Amino acid sequence: MKLSFFKKIIFICLFFIAAAGFLAADTTYKVEKGDTLYSISRKYQITVPELRAANNLSENDVIKVGQKLKIPSADISAAAALASDKKATTTSNASISATTKTKEYTVVKGDTMYSISKKHGMTLAEFMALNNLDNSSVIKVGQKLKIAVASSTNPSTGSGTTGKSDNKAGGTETVEGQTKTSSATTTAPDTRTYGTTVTADKNTIWPVKNPTVTQVKGKVGGVQLSAQVNEPVVCIREGTVMYVGVYRGFGQVLFVQSKTGVIYTYTGLGSVNVKKGDYVVFNQQLGTAGTDPISKKSCINFMVFQNGQPIDPAKAPRN
To answer: How much is the pTM?
Structure first.
């Protein structure tokens, strides 16, 4: 009896270790009948472009039963870079290339944008910007690419929301025009590191009214904005909705890209009123504020990216 009990304890421990590894590290998925890139991306709470980039797939490639796909770890900065429309970002890519020390890299069999950037200590966003690549790019064996000699410094001011958190936030998921409510699935202690509460300029426009603005420290620059329960979340810069869905660690997420290529990221939403491809205008309601699954407070997290790099949300252009 005792031996059986200890076996159960060991099994439970191994299960949780495996679960932690699934959330934090890359994994491999074997395609099953009925699978699509979209369904797999929803299962792992990442974006389709991230799946394509990790597996060097073009928009026209079709996956097959039995095919093994690499599932990259969630990185919201990479998701933002891959969601963007290259037409709006080309002009700002040149400045990154000009200010970064680089060396040449020749693509070999098995390489992907994701694997090359990871191997050389770069973020996928940095690698894409350096080589003027976008979400439709597919690299080829023998192709010459640039890699940074040393990983670039995070241009944010040191505040941000870490992209490594894998706590699942509650919210809604929009699938083929339908909105489904997802519940919070964790009661773990809050491991995020918060910075100072910012006394924002009264003239600064935020997605919610009169929020308490708190910096959240980590590798992705951003702020947490307090809100009333189910308070409307509005667009602060007009643009095109590039992504709507549940993203691992951030709950319900919405990306809006301005005409200048800046991605405005609204995360932790309770509901969403728009869909991918919509053009939204200043002060239009995008959805409602959600509840943080850890603190249980009504709030949203707000981030802004250019070429996948975070910029200070307080200084990002408004309409």
So the answer is: 0.73
